[in-house]
Specification:
With 201 residues, this protein is mainly alpha-helical. It contains 10 helices and 3 strands; from the N terminus they run ααααβαααβαααβ. It folds into 2 domains: 55 residues, Arc Repressor Mutant, subunit A (Orthogonal Bundle), CATH 1.10.10; 140 residues, Orthogonal Bundle (Tetracycline Repressor, domain 2), CATH 1.10.357. Helix 1 crosses helix 2, helix 4 runs antiparallel to helix 5 and helix 4 packs parallel to helix 7.
Length: 201
C-alpha cells in the first residue's frame, strides 16, 4: 500500500470518527430526529461534501455507531463460552460475565442512547440480536418449553438489568452487577442446568 493511500485511509478514519463523535455530542442535547446534517458537519469541523462521501444520510451514520456497539455487545455475551465445547450456565463464575464490562466501557454512548428518542429502536435491536444468538448457540433440552419464548424471557431479563443499571447512572460497579446476575441465575437451577452450549453445527 502506498504512502499516499495510507494518508487517504487515515483521513477517512479521522473524518468518520469526527462525524460520529459530533452526532453523539448533539444527541446528548437534543432528539436524533431534530438534528440536521449541517449541525453534524459544523460540530465536526467538516463540510457536507465530506459527510456525503462517507454516509448516505444521518441514519446511516447512526446505524454504523449502533452496529459496532451491538457487535461488541455480542462479543461480550459470547465471552464465557466461546472457547469451550460444552458450557453449563449453573457453573458460570461471576468474573466470566463481561457484558457489564462492555456496557461500562461504552457508558457514555449507552447513556446518550438512554436519553434519546432512538432508545426504543436500540432496545429492540439489542433484544433481537441476543435472542437470536441464544437460540442459535444455547441449547435448552426442555421439550415442554418453547425455545423462542424462553430465549425472549431470558434475554429480556438480562437487558432489564442492563438498562436499569444505565438508567440509575451506573450506581454499582460492573463486578457487583456480574455477581448479582450470577446469583439470580442460580435461583433457577433447573433452567440453568438445562442451558448448555456448543459450537453451531
Amino acid at each position: 500500500m502506498s504512502e499516499n493511500h495510507l494518508k487517504i485511509d487515515r483521513r477517512i478514519v479521522r473524518s468518520r470518527y469526527a462525524l460520529r463523535e459530533a452526532l453523539l455530542a448533539l444527541m446528548a442535547d437534543k432528539p436524533f430526529q431534530a438534528i440536521s446534517i449541517t449541525e453534524i458537519v459544523e460540530h465536526a469541523g467538516y463540510n457536507r461534501g465530506t459527510f456525503y462521501a462517507n454516509y448516505e444520510n444521518k441514519e446511516a451514520l447512526l446505524d454504523e455507531i449502533t452496529t459496532e456497539l451491538l457487535d461488541k455487545l455480542l462479543q461480550s455475551f459470547r465471552a464465557p463460552y466461546e472457547h469451550v465445547e460444552v458450557f453449563n450456565v449453573s457453573e458460570l463464575p461471576a468474573h466470566a460475565v463481561t457484558i457489564f464490562n462492555h456496557i461500562y466501557e461504552h457508558s457514555n454512548i449507552y447513556t446518550i442512547l438512554m436519553k434519546n428518542d432512538v432508545l426504543p429502536n436500540m432496545k429492540e435491536k439489542m433484544l433481537h440480536v441476543l435472542k437470536q444468538i441464544s437460540m442459535a448457540e444455547l441449547l435448552f433440552p426442555t421439550d415442554d418449553i418453547d425455545r423462542e419464548l424462553l430465549a425472549t424471557y431470558s434475554m429480556s431479563a438480562v437487558l432489564g438489568l442492563v438498562w436499569h443499571w444505565i438508567e440509575t447512572g451506573f450506581k454499582h460497579p460492573p463486578a457487583y452487577m456480574q455477581e448479582q446476575l450470577v446469583k439470580i441465575i442460580h435461583l433457577y437451577p433447573n433452567i440453568a442446568d438445562a442451558a448448555r452450549t456448543g459450537k453451531p453445527l
